[in-house]
Amino acid sequence: MEQQQHDFDDIQSIHQRGKSQYRLGYYQIARNDYTEAYYLALEFEPVNARLDHQIKQFQADVLLDISMTLRQQCQFTQAIEYGDRAETLTRQMNDPLRIAKCLENKGQIDTLKGFYKQALAYYRTALDMKLELLQDDNVELADTYRGIADIYYWQDGIRLAQSMYYKSLIIRLQHQDSNGLDVAESYDMLGNIYVKQSKYDDALTMYQASQSLRTQLLGNDNVEVATSYYRMSTIYRKQSQIQLAESLLEESLAIRLKILGKINLPVANCYHNFALIYQDKSRHATAIKMCHKALSIYLELLGNDHIEISNMYNTIATIYTHNSQDNYALTMYRKSLHINLKISGQYNLGMARLYNLGMARIYNNIAVIYYRQKNYSQAIHMYELSLKIKLELLDSMNVDTASTYINIAITYARLLKYDKAISMFQQGLRIQSHIFGAHHSKVAITYDNMAIVYHQQGKYKYASDIENIAANIRSKCQDQAIDAKSTKTLNQLLLELKDHPTNQHTQATNLLPHEQQENAALDEKEYFKAYHEALLDGKCRSDFIRIMIMGPENVGKSSVIKLFTHQGLVAFLNPTQVIDHTHEILDLKTYNIEDRETYDFQQVLKRKVLTLVEAIREKQNSLRYQQNKQVPEVQDMECNTTYDQVSNVADDTMQLSTLSPFKTAETIRQSLTDIDRQHQADNISNIDQQSLADTTMNDSADLPISSDSDQAKSVTGLVKYFNILFKDYPQYRLTMKDNKHIENSQFGKLWDFGGQAMYQITHHPFMSGNSIYILVFNIAQDIHQPVMKRDGQPSNYTYIQSMQEWLTSTIGSYSGNDHVTVNFDGVDQDYSLPIIILIATHGDKVDDVEDQKCRFDQFEQSLIEYLPSFKNHICSSRIVFNCNPNDTSDNVKSERQQCCLRLHNIIKTFVDDLPFMQLSIPSRWYIMATLLHSCGSSGNSTGESLNNADDIITVGNIMSLQKIKELALDCELYENDDNMRDMLLYLHETGEILFCQHEGIQEMVVCNLVWLLKIFRAIIVLDLDDIKSATVRHDYITARKTGKMSRKCVDYAVAQFSLNKTEKQFILQLLECYDIICSMENNQYLVPYLLQTTSHQLDISGYQTSEWLYIGYDKDIISYIPDGIYHCLVSACYKKWDYPQVELYYRSAKFCLRDDHHYIILKKEISSIAVQYCYQNDKDNDGLTKWIVGKVEISIAEKRPHDVIKDLLSHTVGDRLSRFKPAKPDYLVECTICHEQTTITSHDPTNSVLIQCSKCNGFFKSQSLQDWKFDCHDQAIVTEDQSQRWPNVDSNTATTVDVYNADGQLVQVSILNPST
Length: 1316
Prior knowledge:
Elements: H1 2-24, H2 27-43, H3 49-72, H4 76-93, H5 96-113, H6 116-133, H7 139-154, H8 158-174, H9 180-196, H10 200-218, H11 223-238, H12 242-260, H13 265-280, H14 284-302, H15 307-322, H16 326-343, H17 349-372, H18 376-393, H19 399-414, H20 418-436, H21 441-457, H22 460-475, H23 490-499, H24 514-537, E1 539-541, E2 544-550, H25 557-564, H26 582-588, E3 590-592, E4 598-599, H27 601-626, H28 665-669, H29 677-685, H30 689-694, H31 717-726, H32 729-735, H33 740-743, E5 747-752, E6 772-778, E7 786-788, E8 794-798, H34 799-812, E9 819-824, E10 827-832, E11 835-841, H35 849-866, E12 874-880, H36 890-913, E13 920-922, H37 923-936, E14 944-948, E15 951-955, E16 958-960, H38 961-970, H39 977-989, E17 994-995, E18 1004-1006, H40 1009-1019, H41 1030-1042, E19 1044-1046, H42 1047-1055, H43 1061-1073, E20 1078-1079, E21 1084-1086, E22 1103-1105, E23 1109-1112, H44 1123-1136, E24 1141-1145, E25 1148-1152, E26 1159-1164, E27 1168-1176, H45 1182-1199, H46 1201-1216, E28 1226-1230, E29 1237-1239, E30 1250-1252, E31 1259-1261, H47 1263-1267, H48 1280-1285, E32 1295-1300, ...
Parallel strand pairs: 2-5, 2-6, 6-11, 11-12
Antiparallel strand pairs: 1-13, 3-4, 3-5, 7-8, 9-10, 14-15, 16-18, 17-18, 19-21, 20-21, 22-27, 23-27, 23-28, 24-25, 25-26, 26-27, 28-29, 30-31, 32-33
C-alpha cells in the first residue's frame, strides 16, 4: 500500500514537472510530460477503491492539461478531442467541479475560434455548477469570471468585460499565495481593457505589475514575461516613446526565439510590431523587411486567407503611404481587402465581425490616400463604406466612429459642401462629448474646425459663436484632470485588498482642491507634451563656445578676464593653476555675447531647454488658430498593432533596465485610474447570472476618463527629468518676458589656462579647433626677452619661445582646414581655424599710444616671421589693457571700457560667422548637458544626483559610454549610438565634458571637469608649502631635480578626492594616455616637465660621443617643437625601449639601453630633436675600447635607435598635433660652413659622408652620417629620385663593416639591409 502511494507520487511529480514547463511556455515539452504521466497512470493497478478514484481523477486532469497545451498552440481539433475524453471520464465519476472545468476549456476554445455565443453558454453552465458547489469567493470562480470577461472583451463589451475582470481579480488577490501567476494574468486583462479605452498610462501600470510578478515567480527567460514586455512595448509606442518600445520588443523577441523557435505566431507578431516601430522612425525600408519576415511566418502557419495576412498587407500599405508611394499602397490595400471579403462570410459571426472591422480600417486608409490625391469624391465613398461597417459592428458611441464622421466632414468641406460638413461635424461632436465629456480638448478642436467651415460659408456670427465655445472649453478643460468628488478608486481598493484581505471597507479620502489640481494637471500636461516633442524633433542653435585665455605666466590673463567680465581688479593675483580658479571659471564665467554679462551656466542651459519647450507649447496651443482660414486635414491612417491569442492579448517586448520594478501596492496606487469605487462596485454586484447570457453588447456608456494628474510620476526617466525641469517652470514663466534676451543669446565659456611651463602638458585634452583663443602678451617686454616670473626672476623662456609653445600646441591640435570670413570695418577678411586673437597688457608701462601701436605691430610681425604658417589664424586686435590695480582714474576706466568693448565686438563678429555656431543641434543634447553638468557643477568625488521626490538621476564624475547610453535611455535622450557619439563630441567641443578617444580609456567620459582639473592641480604642485607630509614634500623636491615622481606623491595627491578603485585606476590611465605621467619600475613615474632649470646638468665628460644627429620637420610646416612634444617623446622612448635606465635633465635625457654598451641622448632644440650616443672611453685599455666601439657600431647599424626615435616623434606629433599628422620628420645635420641644419637626403652615395647644404649650397663632410651608419646605404633615406641619380646603388645588398673583437683584432662583419 505504501509502495503504491509512493509510485503514484512519482507519477504526480512528472505531471507537476509538465505544469512547470507549461508556465514557462514550453507547451510541447509540457505535453510530453503530461503524456508520460497519463500512460503511467493507465498502467497503474490500485489496490483499493480510494486510490482507484484518485487515479481516475488524475487521468482526467492530465487529459484536460493536454488539451490546454494544444489549445495554446491553436491545434483546436486535437484540443477538443482530449477535452472530450477528459469530460467523459469526469462524467463517469460524476465529478461536477471537473465537469465545469471541462466546459470552461470548451468555452476557451470557442472563444479563440470566435464562437462567442456558444462559448458564453459553456461558461454559464460551468458558473452555475461552481456556484452550487463553492463559496462566492472561491478561487475556482475567478477562472470562470475571467473566461466570461474574455468573451465580452472580444465583442467590445468593455464595461462588462472590465467588471468581470475586476471580480476575478478581487478573488485572486484574496488567494494570491496559491497562484500569483493568476493575479499577473488578471493585471494583463485589465491592461487590455485600458488599451481599448486608450488609457495607456493605466494599461502600462497593469502590464508592469504583471511583468514584475511573473519575473519574480518565473525568472526573466519565460514566454509569459516576454508577453508582458511585448504589451508594454505596444503602450510605449502608442505614447511615442519609440526607443523604449523598440528595446522592450527586442527583449521579447529574444526570449520567444530562445524558447519557441523561429516559426511561430508570437515571433511573427514581434516582427509585425517592429515594422510599426520602424515606420514611426521613418525607416521605411527596414519596416518593409520586418513586414516580410512576419508575412512569411504567417503564410507558413496560417495559409493565404487569414485575418493576420490581411492585417500584414494593411501594415505594408500604410508604410508605403507614409513614404508617399500611394500606388504601391493601394495595391496592398486591395490585397488586404480581397482577403477580408473572401473570408468574412466563411466563419462564425464573431470572426466575421473581426474581419469586417479590418475591412473598415482598410476602407478608411484607402480614403486617406484618395484624400491626399485630392480625389475627394472617392475619399467620401471609402469613408462611408468604413462608417457603415463601424455603425453595424461597433457601439454607436465609439471613438473610431467619431473620427470617421470628422474625416467625412473635412472632406465635404474640401468639396465646398459645407452643410454636409457641418452635419458630419455635429455627429462626431455628439460622440466625442459623450465619450470624453463636454470639456475636453478634442471637443474644442472639433468646434474650432466647425468654426472654420462657418467662416468659409461667410456665416461669421456662427463662426464667432463656435470659436467662443471652443475657447470656453479650453479654459475649463478637464482633459484627464482629477475629479474632486471622486473617492478612492476601485483599483486602490483592490490593492488594499491585496495587502489586507480582511479589510474590504475603506473610508473615502479627500483629494486636493479641484481647481488647484485641474490647473496644475492641465499646465503640466501641456508642458509635458511640448517637452516630449522637443525630445523627438526639437532643434536648437549651437549657442555655446569656449573662449580660452592663454599666454605666458605673469602677463595679466586673470586681470583681463576680471576686466572683461566687469568684476574689477584685485591687488594681488595668485598664479593660475591649470585653469585659474576652476571652481569659478566653469561655474560663473559664462559670458553672454549679446549683453556682456555673466550667468550661471547650469541655469543658462536649463533656460535654453525651457525656452524651446515653451515655444513648442505655444505652437501647439495656437495651431488651430494658425489654420484660421483653412479647412483642416483628415486624421491619420488606421493601422493595427498585432495581438496574440486571447490569453495573450496585445502580446509583444525587452529587459526592463529602464523601468522601476513594480512591487508595492503604493507604487500601483500612484498611477491607477480614477474610477469611482462605489459606482463600479455597484456595477459588479448588479450583474446577475441571467445577464451573462442575455445582455446585448451595448456599451454606450464608457467608464469615466482616467486621471492623468499622476503622469509626471511615471517610472520612466523621461518623466524623471521632466519633474526636475518642471519645478523651475513656473518661476521661469514669470521672468521669461523680462529676460527674453537670455534665451536668444549665445554664450562663451571663459577658460584661463595657466601660463606656467609645467602646466602646459595638461592643456592638450581641452584643446579644440572650435574654440576662440585669446593670446596675451606683455607689451612692455621685448619679444626676445625672458618672460618674467611673479617673483621677479626671469624664466627659462623668452616671449617668442613662449608664444611658439602656445601657438604650435593650440593650432597644431586641430586637424581641420576650416575657414571663416568675417567683416571688420567693411572689409571681408579670411581666417583659418582656430582663431587666435592677439591682445596686450601692461599698457600702463608704455604711456605713448603710438609707441604701443608700434610695439604691438612689431610683436605681431615677429610672430609671423617665426611662425609663417600660422599667420592666417592670428587676428591682431591692437588692444592694450592697462591692468594696474592702483590706477583708477576716469581716463583709465574709460580706456578699459573701450578695450573691453572692442574685444567683445571682435569675439561677437567671429561667433556670428563661425560654422560651429551655426549648427542646428538636437535639443536633447542640451538636456543631456544639463544632466551631466549636474555633476560638473559640484566638485565632489562621488558624482551628483538630480532628485525630485522619488525621482533620482545619478551622474558620475567618470562614466563609460555604456553608462551614458543607459542614462540617455533612462531619460529618453537616446536615438542611436552614432547620434550619441556625435552628442558627446559636441559636448566635448563646448568644454562640457572630456570625451576620451585614446586607446585604454577609449569612449570614457569625464563629466566633472572641475574635479579632474583639481586632480591635475593636486599632482602638479606649484607651492610645496601646501604639502603637509614631509616625506611627500621631499619626494616632490626630488621630482623637480630628477624628473621622476614617486608613487607616494600621486597617492597623496588623489587621496583627498576619496576615489574608489575604479576611479583611481581610470585617473592613472588617463594621466598615462595624455603623457602627464609615465610608469616606471620601483613605483615611480617619469615627469620630465617638472624639472627645474636649476636641476643638475647633463655631463658626458669621459665618454666618447658621436656627432649630433637632428630629427625635425620642414620649417615651413613646423618651425618649433613644443616642450610638450619632447616630454611625450621621452616617455614614448622609455616605453619603446622596455623601461631602460634613464637620467632626466632639463630638456635632455640619457637612456642606457640594455646590452648595447652605449647611451642614447635626446636633447630638445628649438625646431628639432637632437640625438647623440656615447660610450665608455678607456684610454688605458685600447683593446677594450676597440671592442666596445665594435659593439656600438653593430648596435647602431642593426637596431638603428635613431629610426626608432624618428618614428616615435612622428607618432607623437600626429597624436598631439593632429594638424601635422601628414607631415613626416627628416634627418638633419649641422653644416660646418654656415652652421645651419640641413637635410641629408642629398648626400652622394659614392662618398657617404659628403653633404651639400640646402642653405648655403656648400659641400661638407658630415661625421654624423658615418657615426649613425648612414654609409650602410639605408634604403630608408635613398629616395626614388636618388636611385635614379645614382643607379649603381644596390640597397638590397649586405653591408660590410670593419670592427674590433674583444681581443682587439680587426674583423669584417656583414650587416644586412633592414629590408632584406
